[in-house]
């Protein structure tokens, strides 16, 4: 409870939202997506492989058979998109290099700007748009099954 002090009257309490309610409001930063209301194919996308730790090394170094550690630069052109996908079996870290990507999830949208980092964990199901006027790129480091 916060107290508001009015110099002409005595102090009066003001009710405020609990911090959990404020966090829940802040976590939803855009419109929610209806089931099936997401891109199903890539559009305006360029993927550049920057480095790879091969499967044999991943097995010897960290005991992870049949997987590679991959570093890529992914660029979405203006109006482009990355299709709906899950990271359930592909953990990753994304560093926004230039521009902005709008990430869509069933719970809403979040804009990721140059200089920001976010993760793709076992619970991540999302898609992306570039709604800006310039190409937007990110460095993506993830562990993928070897092909």
UniProtKB/TrEMBL annotation:
Top-rank taxon, per record: Bacteria
Kindly indicate whether the keyword Signal belongs to this entry: yes
Q: Which UniProt keywords apply?
A: Signal
Can the keyword Signal be found in this entry's annotation?
yes
The signal peptide annotation in the UniProt record is: 1-26
What protein name does the entry list? Cupin domain protein
């Amino acid at each position: 409870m916060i107290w508001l002090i009015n110099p002409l009257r005595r102090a009066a309490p003001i009710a405020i939202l609990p911090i959990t309610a404020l966090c829940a409001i802040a976590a939803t930063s855009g419109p929610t997506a209806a089931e099936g209301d997401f891109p199903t194919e890539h559009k305006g996308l360029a993927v550049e492989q920057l480095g790879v730790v091969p499967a044999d090394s991943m097995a010897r170094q960290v005991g992870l058979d049949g997987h590679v550690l991959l570093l890529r630069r992914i660029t979405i052109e203006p109006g482009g998109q990355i299709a709906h996908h899950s990271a359930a079996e592909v953990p990753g870290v994304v560093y926004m290099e230039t521009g902005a990507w709008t990430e869509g999830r069933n719970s809403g949208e979040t804009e990721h700007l140059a200089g920001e980092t976010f993760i793709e964990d076992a619970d991540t199901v999302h898609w992306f748009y570039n709604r800006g006027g310039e190409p937007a790129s990110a460095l993506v480091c993830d562990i993928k099954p070897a092909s």
